[in-house]
Each structure stands twice: as structure tokens, then as C-alpha cells.
């Protein structure tokens, strides 16, 4: 598999020397690349292993080439890192509208071809990080480091690996409960070498089995303590597991307990946030569980960091994302999240409203996971367990924190489930692609209103919910073939 050969050569580039110093945002100083450090040296010292892990997280913010297999550097703002994958999902729904600039093909659901940069980037990005995770896990196993260090950092590696296999499963396969036997995704648990051959694809059922196994193992050994909110700890891994169980829908008890472990068990304190109306850019907010830190002066993606750089219309940036008027109307006037303005006085329907939820600066941190999301996962789990009273109480805990005039829901059955899903959209819009995620996992269609610039409708279980396998992978891996994209 040619991609893996290239990824393996990039291993040395991520090794970092990091100064462990205090920082106002609880994050390590940015890692500095140091060429020539061998893998055998990395796994001789705990601090160097930690620096390697910091380097992996730093890659989440990298300016990524859309296809490293072609020998050319063609990176673009819409292939800028983890946040780029999330934002591509975000603008596939009905709530947000994208202007004809970057992400316009994702917005039109027209960016899934085997040679397109979205397809190549998403595959390459996730498999490269998986390869780093495998390097970490296997390097620790062969090392002479103490058992406590091995256990902790192996857990980190498993959480990272599980997270990225989950992204690949979401992006390149049908929904889990639509076709568990879909065979499109190769599994790798060993680092690539210069002579590695690509593995054959495994069933989606086997991919999810690895994801669940890795996360459950990681949760046992991960500590809560961490260097900063850009790092995975036990709470974040529990949040990852809760998200996965929303897809598999086969263990609502564990989904609830995992969500509770992530948000701390006290919903009332978990949903408190000071970020609304303040630019949604500060990872020190107690509601944020996991985020990407920006230091404001030494980043490679000043003008790439979605969602802020695309959604903020009051700062010099792309100013490219608008709000569906009908989505805006779902917010009450006393809801702190109703941050919508008609600043252009436009007669073009799709340009009528923008949101000031996100403020773009060079120091804008990007949210990856929040406690409020976990409270809503718990509410959905309680609903599916038949505990509608508890589901409504959890829902109301968030609603009354965002809107002092909120009232306890009287909905039951499907109407209550729909209310929980709407609250997820209202709470998390612009962040991780929640509308697309929920539509895919629940086998629902995406039906756009006429206000959209591209008013496309995507049927439930449509192939538009997943990408083709990159042509470069099919060409390089003898165990993959063209039939996967038919």
C-alpha cells in the first residue's frame, strides 16, 4: 500500500522536543520538529514518548496535502486537519448554508469521487494518525519503560486509533445498522514498513469491534489528569465511546454510563458555559472536554481553522457560512444561543442571516467535544431505555441553562426523540457536523429548505452519506479493487 509506505517515512518528522511549561490555556508549548531521532530512541524515555504524543495531536491542526501519494503539495483550507473533516460534515445538512468558496463541493454533496481531494484527504489523514497510534502502541510494547508508563500511553494510543477508525467508518462506509457486513475498510494494528502490503478490507462489524475493544481497554487505563484539554484523558475516551454507541445502538445502558462518566454525572453543573456570545473560542470554558488549542502567534493555519474562519462575518476571514432562516426560527428570543443577525440586508434568501457564535482570531480554539453534548447523549440513552421522565429532565437541564424561559417538555414518544435531536442541532451547530451524524446513524434523510443555495435532498441510507475509496488506494493496494466504488 503506497500510502502506508509514505506514512512510515514521515514518522521521524513528528518526533518533537517539548518544553513542559505552564501556559494560560493548560497546553504544552508548540512542539518543534527534530529530524534524525530514531524510533528506538523515542521509546527510551517517558518525556520523549509524551512529546511524540503531543506531535500527533499537533498534526490535527496541520495543513494537509490532499493526496500525499501524488508527490505534489496541494493543501487547501478545506483539507486543513481534523476540524476540516468536521466542517465538511457540518455544511452537508440543512441548518447551515455555504457560499461558493471552499467546502462548496461538500455543501453540494458533490465531493465523494475517488480522485477528489475530500476523499483523498479524509482517507490519508485518518490512516496516517492510525499509523502513528500503531507506532506508539507497538513501540511501547517493545520498550524497557516502566509498566505504569506503558499502560498509560498504550491507552492513549488505543483511544487515538479507535477515534480515527470511527471517523473512517463514518466517512467511507454505510451506516452500521444499514449494512454491518459492508466490506470497505482495511484494518491495521501494526506500523507500516517500507515493504508493507495493504490489507484487504474488513467487515464494518469487525471495524466497530476493534473500535469498541480499543476504547473499553483505554478507559480502564487512562488517567483523568492530563497536560491540557488538547489531550485525551479518561473522560474524553468515555465521550468517544458514548458517541460510538449512538451509532451501534445496542447498549444504551453503557451509552448512558459512558456519557455520565464524560460529563461528570452532574448535568446541572456540566452544561454551564461562558462561551456563548463570547466567540466560542476559549478551551478553558468548563463545558469543553476536548479541543484544539491555538497559541495566537505560532500556528500554521491562521486562516484555515474552521468553523471560526468561515462562519465569522465581522472579522477579515472567508465570511462564507450563513444560517438557514428556518433553523434560526427554532430558537426563542431569550435563548443565549440565538446569535443571528441580518448584517447584509440581503434580498438573497441564503444570505439573510449569519451567526456570531464563532469569533475568528489567531488564538481561536476549536471545540472537539463538550459536556453538554454528553448530557444530550445521556438524555437520548434514557429515552431508548424507556425512561422518558429522566430523558426530559436531562433535556430541560440544558434548555433552562440556555434559556431562562424554557419549560419542561411535555412531548412523549417520537416527538420527544425529535426534540432531543433538535436540541443537539441547536447546541452544537457549526462544531462537529452533528446534523449529518444524526441523519446517518438514525437512517434519516436530509431535506433542505428552498432557502438554500443548493436545495438538494439526500435520502436515508443514500450513498451520498459516505465517500468512495480513493483511487490512489485502489491502485496501490492489491487487496482493494474498483468494485468497491460501484
From TrEMBL:
It is found in: Cell outer membrane. Pfam families: SusD-like_3, SusD_RagB. Residues 364-481 form the RagB/SusD domain. Residues 117-246 form the SusD-like N-terminal domain. SUPFAM superfamilies: TPR-like (SSF48452). PROSITE patterns: PROKAR_LIPOPROTEIN. GO terms for cellular component: cell outer membrane. Keywords: Cell outer membrane, Membrane, Signal. The keyword Membrane applies. Belongs to the SusD family. This is Glycan metabolism protein RagB. It comes from Flavivirga aquatica.
